[in-house]
Write a structure and sequence with these properties.
Radius of gyration: 16 Å
Distance between the termini: 25 Å
Strand order of the largest sheet: 2-3-1-4
GO molecular function: ATP binding; metal ion binding; nucleoside diphosphate kinase activity
GO biological process, one term: GTP biosynthetic process
Helix content: 25-40%
Family: Belongs to the NDK family.
CATH topology: Alpha-Beta Plaits
Shape: globular
Largest sheet: 4 strands, antiparallel
CATH class: Alpha Beta
Cofactor: Mg(2+)
InterPro entries: NDK-like_dom, NDK-like_dom_sf, Nucleoside_diP_kinase
Number of helices: 8
Mean pLDDT: 94
Low-confidence stretches: none
Number of strands: 4
Length: 156
Amino acid sequence: MQRTLVIIKPDAVQRRLIGKIISRFEEKGFAIIGLKLMVISEALARKNYSIHKGKDFYEKLIEFMTSGPVVVLVLRGKNVIEVTRKLIGSTFGHEAAPGTIRGDYAISDRFNLIHGTDSVESAEKEISLFFEKENLMEYEQTDLKWIYDTSGKDII
């Protein structure tokens, strides 16, 4: 099973969208194995978004991500990175498809509610920035046979 990091950004927290956003991932069948409410320090924000250093939006991104509380999640599931990014939607709210988180709740280019990692390598790096290994709760999901077809049989 893959893991990914999701950050529910300050605008979503201020708009009281935490529950609605988290429910999208739970309803899809992903396990939440890490969860915390925090204010990201400037140093941590700069580390996490170092890939954007030098771009015209970098300083505004750092200012935004440190402006208030965020909710940081680690999700586990089959193809969790790809599926999470589809659930999140396009970067800019006005371009995101209806039915995605950004498509349903965002309109701004700058305030786009949520961050999700884009690769296995990025996920592992970002998870280690926000969580100590002992703070991730690996547990058995008893409903996996209902989420993923684990029978090995073709039903159709």
